[in-house]
Amino acid sequence: MEVKACSTINDKNNQLVPHNNVIKLTPLQLEALLTEGNTSIFWLVEFRASFSSGCRRASRCFPELSITYSNKNLSFGIVDLGLFPNAAEKFEISPGGE
Question: What is the DSSP letter of 71?
Fold first, then answer.
């Protein structure tokens, strides 16, 4: 399965370079990683709704954490509940923070 980290264009040489180590995941990709993926890799996954200003504010530190702590045994991912509203129920996430 191919998953890509968030990237940005480096203006100096017009190459794509990661600006953090957070991987945007679909619920199916996450499920596959958790059930079929490498068992020596731990995932820290943030479930958020990109339309929510509260979620955007709360997740500001996530990219920085990914840069500091990502390694061969720890990966960071994001599932956008705004794009995949059924994922909240599937992964037992309370969208209201209850």
Answer: B
Whole-angstrom Cα distance, residue 22 to residue 45? 9
pTM here is 0.72
Amino acid letter, 82: G
Domains along the chain with CATH numbers: 23-90 (3.40.30.10)
E strands present in the chain: 5-10, 15-24, 42-48, 74-80
Query: What's the burial of 25, exposed, middle or buried (CB within 10 Å: 0-12/13-18/19+)?
Result: buried
Is residue 21 within 8 A of residue 74, CB to CB? The reply is no
d(CA 15, CA 7) in angstroms, rounded, equals 10
pLDDT score, position 98: 47
CA dist., res. 55 & res. 34, Å (int): 24
